[in-house]
UniProtKB/TrEMBL annotation:
Belongs to the aspartate/ornithine carbamoyltransferase superfamily. OTCase family. One of its GO terms (molecular function) is amino acid binding. This is ornithine carbamoyltransferase. Pathway: Nitrogen metabolism; urea cycle; L-citrulline from L-ornithine and carbamoyl phosphate: step 1/1. It comes from the Eukaryota. Its EC number is 2.1.3.3. Pfam families: OTCace (PF00185), OTCace_N (PF02729). Residues 162-314 form the Aspartate/ornithine carbamoyltransferase Asp/Orn-binding domain. The lineage of its organism: Eukaryota, Metazoa, Chordata, Craniata, Vertebrata. GO terms for cellular component: mitochondrion. Gene3D superfamilies: Aspartate/ornithine carbamoyltransferase (3.40.50.1370). Residues 27-155 form the Aspartate/ornithine carbamoyltransferase carbamoyl-P binding domain.
Amino acid sequence: MLSLSGGQARSFSTGTAALGSAKLKGRSFLTLKDFGSDEIKKLLWVSADLKHRIKQNNEHLPLLQGKSIAMIFEKRSTRTRMSTETGFALLGGHPCFLTSQDIHLGVNESSTDTANVQSQHTGGPCERRFSPIINGLSDMYHPIQILADFLTLQEHYGSLHGLTVSWIGDGNNVLHSFMMTAAKLGVHLKIATPKGYEPEKSVIQEAQRLSEKYGTQLVLTTDPMEAAHDSNVLVTDTWVSMGQEEEKKKRLADFDGYQITMQTGSVAKPDWTFLHCLPRKTEEVDDQVFYSSRSLVFPEAENRKWTIMGLMVSLLTDYTPKMPMIKF
């Protein structure tokens, strides 16, 4: 076990005025590493506001009327595509779905020229590829997933500050995004990965810096039970990502003992919950946990839509939430 930093999460007071002054319009969204605490909180606040106004109040909000977005996907997708398409359309905009086969990205013309042309036709491209502008997913980061995860936890616990999230699984792009975000929200992070599957060293170094700045705990270990101990939230993801299919047999052997079960949760806090970004395999988490009342997986999946909507509204407009600021 390597405890990189520790201590009580320091309370950083953020008022409505401070979040309201966070400027997001026109920004690119590649990684949450580029966004400060107030900016991430504003994205979550806008997302919660849109969800409340549209889902609860049944309001019609054509905030993106007359705008369009190019959705360029090099990797297949279910939740990212559906949440972006339906969300953008619900706000009055027009989503354009394109695969690399549709536009032969980087073949007939350079990726830079394609991006410049697309920007003339749309409000901005949302790309699920390797050099994105709005990052729907890349090999290094998956930032839109983390917005959905933290909105889900804020809704469930009423506040994020002081929570402990335990990641048990692969040191992948989703984990990297957790590491770039948790400390900024006052969240402690424990990470259990098998040897050889640790997160990138540069990401560890940045996460250590953030934990020291915000007074949160960052722990890296190879023991899933150690990571789960006294945790509020247990999180995992696929052990075999797209493009790693040939490694499946070895990976399943290397991750033996990492399946999240009720036994894993027995050492967590009494109010522990479970997250998984989907699609899920039973070797990662058993049915007893996945379909239990502790599982927030399906609210998490729904919040992919509301957070991508909050992100697009924030990057394309000067929208200010109407509901009171949510508690962080």
